[in-house]
Amino acid sequence: MSLSYIKRAEQGNRSALSFIATILICVGGLFVGQSIPIFLAAFIKAGMKGEDISNIDTTAKLIGYFPFPVSFGLLMTGFVVLIICLWICMKLFHRRKFSTLWSDQDRFRKKDFLLGLFISILLFVGTDLLTHFLSPADHKWVFDPAVYYLFVPLALVFIPLQTLSEELFFRGYLYQAFGLVGHNKWLAWLASGIVFGLFHFGNVEMDISFWKMGIVYIGSGLMIGLSVMFSKGIEFGWGFHLVNNLYLSLITNFKGSSLDGPTLYTIPKPSSDRILLEFGLMFLIFTLILVLVYRNNVKNLFVRAA
After folding, report:
1. Nearest to 174 by CA among 197, 152, 158
2. Distance between CA 100 and CA 10 in Å, rounded?
3. pLDDT value at position 296?
4. What is the enclosing helix (H) or strand (E) of 141?
5. What 3-state DSSP class applies to 229?
6. Which H or E element spans position 265?
7. Dist CA 254 CA 263 (whole Å)
8. Residues 6 or more apart from 105 whose CB is under 8 A from it?
9. In a designed cystine with 192, which of 63, 131, 175, 258 is the match (CB 3.0 to 4.6 A)?
10. First-to-last CA distance in the chain?
11. Which is more confident, 108 or 4?
12. Whole-number pLDDT of residue 124
């Protein structure tokens, strides 16, 4: 049976209490899943070295107590917990298949995921080549084999899980929940995009410019959310999100970013205006690609079902 993507949430238990409980458990699981491993690891390390860490009173400060990539692995555990919590809540509270979060076809569509990967790689590589051509001095080769080869396996394991957890929760679960409440796919798109952006307001990039980076983060949620509306599933968006995070963690980024991995290249910290301009162009190109790839679904954006 093929239902519209939002209507997948009508299966099983769709009481308000089940949605509230799931959201609270998933968000709580994410933060507890990050905090507990970090605190335990810190106490173990401090005990073995005989160090006093009583003055380290926040999770952010504790992260700095560990060398990279240990700190990266500890932070990523929360996203694994998020997936587990969401799976349990879908079974326990909603009593519907976890696969209803994938697409309107009740299955993972590998073709859409691979398409998202391929197009995203072209976008990011093309953008990087263009900026390198316009300003070659900005790209500085910083490859450190010892750190890089240690980080790559961790990135290839944890970043897919991190991006998958966010797609399942924000563009899957919350999108369907908002759509079910508001009976409108555009409201679901807007609300889930805003929540996704607000969720990232704690990232260090917000220090560049609160309002402009806020627009970029909320806009990113809306941009990837468009892929859900066009494709009727999260696979394409997951492919894009995955490439974005892997590329910024392994290939090119600026020092001090929220995805500050041992990249091959570093670039100067960009201005907020440049980030906003580049994002605007990316949003436009991404939307045009969706229109071309899913042109047969465009008319469905303006009917009630999602």
Report:
1. 197
2. 10
3. 86
4. strand 140-141
5. helix
6. strand 265-266
7. 9
8. 2, 232, 233
9. 175
10. 15
11. 108
12. 92
Q: What is the pLDDT of residue 264?
A: 92
pTM comes to 0.91
Q: 58: which 2 tokens?
A: 């926040």
Report for 4-8, 104-108, 110-114: range of highest mean pLDDT? 110-114
Place of tokens 């999100």: 241
Cβ neighbours around 284 below 10 Å, total: 11
Do the Cβ atoms of 175 and 225 come closer than 8 Å? yes
Residue type, 4: S
Side chain identity, residue 287: T
Identity (one letter) of the amino acid at 101? L
Say if residue 60's pLDDT is above 80: no
State how far the Cα of 194 lies from the Cα of 166, in Å rounded to an integer.
13
Mean pLDDT within 67-88: 90
pLDDT reading at 167 higher than 60: yes
Residues in the chain: 306
- φ/ψ of residue 107, rounded to 5: -160, 165
